[in-house]
Design a protein that fits this description.
The protein is mainly alpha-helical and 461 residues long. It contains 20 helices and no strands.
């Protein structure tokens, strides 16, 4: 990975680490007032919905003005998160903890939306999967390390608030300050001052629903326990195993988006089987560990899917994290359903099976459109005189200039924006600019339609 990609992923991971661990510390205080199930409902459903609302609010801010990407924004969010989280942690009573914990959860959504959008805007297609995986893996492992302080009691002690404040200061000062205002090669001045033009189509709606259902299914399975089974509900250790799946999924997605998407769907199969596999106390913990590892695949997919769409259509950049919003809402519903059904394995498995079939039908209906195999494109568009003649005719017909023709040729060869930039010795943002103009000239909405349009021209000259 390039230094810039590693830098941004590390910063995102640090943000996730201190905000996520603060979230857990606040959750711990709720055990003084509520039983386990009530705490789970508050943190994994109510707080999760508030985080989703935070994401949506941040997206609306970005859509209205690109000034939402300036460096003062995460500084303000960090200050609010630290303040409200500290009050929630120190509050003398359940009401205070829930009220200020709610404020904290909402603004955790806003700052994570900011960090993940930065990855979309600044990290190349070929490295984005690893970057997203790194963010959550660093956060998960960091949480585990912090929890080991003070003999494993650190997250419940007051001194941990100082550590959170220091980590927040580091990310704002040393990290987020370098993001700053977008360079002109990302957004030209006239673009920077105008609201984003977002075009949401039916495929985006279907994709949102699919990711939502992915996490409904995942979280139903995670909350089933057999009688006498191991209570594997440690938010700390679950994050550590979750990190393993995230790293693996990141590498797979960068190698092949199609394979990554398939792995995400197949990983849900384990969630479907996990309740049935927990036949006794001895296997319960192992199954839960594997479930958290497999959860890493749909977790990376939720970020990749809309981020890639935002790269194809620059106007969609505010909605690059829409998949994470869908996942949070799915987590909330899945957790709630899991708690309702956890005492009845037969009903639980039947419900999951029906949802799995419905989700699978929607997923594969959209799959070939979103993730055509590059090998198929290359087989359909072989090199040779006939292709070159068709190419010359195509660029003349569409009115493309020489620079656009160079970029188009790379696209037809299956190259990512980062690979095109390297081969043409230009910046990736310049490539994005040319791609946008090519799509407009050819009346195509994305790369897949562009390749298909040329393929039709090639096969039917």
């Amino acid at each position: 990975m390039k230094k810039r990609s590693v830098f941004l992923a590390t910063l995102g991971g640090l943000i996730y680490m201190w905000t996520g661990t603060l979230y857990i510390s606040v959750a711990y205080t709720l055990f003084d007032y509520f039983d386990d199930i009530s705490v789970c409902l508050i943190t994994d459903t109510f707080f999760a919905v508030l985080q989703a609302l935070g994401y949506l609010s941040s997206m609306a801010f970005m859509r209205k003005s690109k000034r939402a990407l300036e460096k003062w924004v995460p500084a303000v969010w960090s200050l609010i998160i630290c303040g409200s989280g500290a009050v929630a942690f120190l509050a003398d009573g359940a009401a205070g903890t829930i009220i200020f914990g709610s404020i904290m959860s909402f603004f955790i959504g806003t700052i994570m939306c900011y960090a993940l959008t930065e990855i979309t805007l600044n990290v190349s297609f070929a490295e984005r999967g690893k970057a997203f995986g790194m963010i959550y893996a660093i956060g998960g492992v960091g949480t585990l390390i912090l929890s080991l302080l003070d003999g494993g009691n650190a997250l419940g002690e007051k001194f941990i608030l100082i550590i959170y404040a220091l980590l927040a200061a580091v990310t704002v000062g040393a990290g987020l300050g370098s993001y700053g205002k977008k360079e002109e090669n990302l957004f030209r001045e006239e673009e920077y001052l105008k609201p984003a033009k977002v075009h949401i189509g039916k495929n985006d709606v279907v994709l949102f629903f699919i990711i939502f259902m992915f996490f409904v299914l995942s979280n139903i399975g995670l909350h089933f326990k057999v009688t006498g089974g191991t209570e594997f509900e440690s938010a700390i250790f679950s994050r550590a195993f979750y990190a393993i799946g995230l790293i693996i999924a990141g590498f797979i997605n960068d190698k092949s988006r199609k394979t990554g998407a398939l792995c995400a769907f197949l990983a849900l199969g384990f969630g479907l089987l996990s309740p049935a596999l927990q036949v006794n106390a001895g296997t319960s913990a192992l199954v839960q560990i594997m479930a958290y590892i497999f959860l890493g695949f749909p977790a990376v997919y939720r970020m990749i899917a809309f981020s890639d769409e935002a790269e194809k259509d620059r106007g969609k950049f505010p909605f690059a994290t829409l998949g994470v919003t869908a996942a949070l809402l799915g987590q909330a519903l899945g957790t709630y359903m899991g708690i309702l059904l956890e005492r009845n394995m037969t009903v639980l498995v039947c419900v999951m099976l029906v949802l799995y079939i419905v989700t699978g039908a929607g997923f594969f209906a959209l799959f070939t459109y979103l993730y055509p195999a590059k090998t198929e494109s290359r087989e359909t568009l072989p090199a040779g005189d006939r292709r070159e003649l068709a190419f010359e005719q195509y660029i003349k017909e569409k009115g493309l200039n020489p620079k656009q023709a160079q970029v188009l040729k790379c696209i037809l060869d299956g190259a990512s924006n980062g690979e095109i930039a390297e081969s043409l010795f230009v910046t990736e943002s310049t490539v994005k600019y040319h791609v946008t103009n090519i799509l407009q000239a050819t009346s195509c909405h994305n790369r897949n339609e562009l390749i298909e349009d040329f393929r039709n021209h090639y096969l039917n000259p």
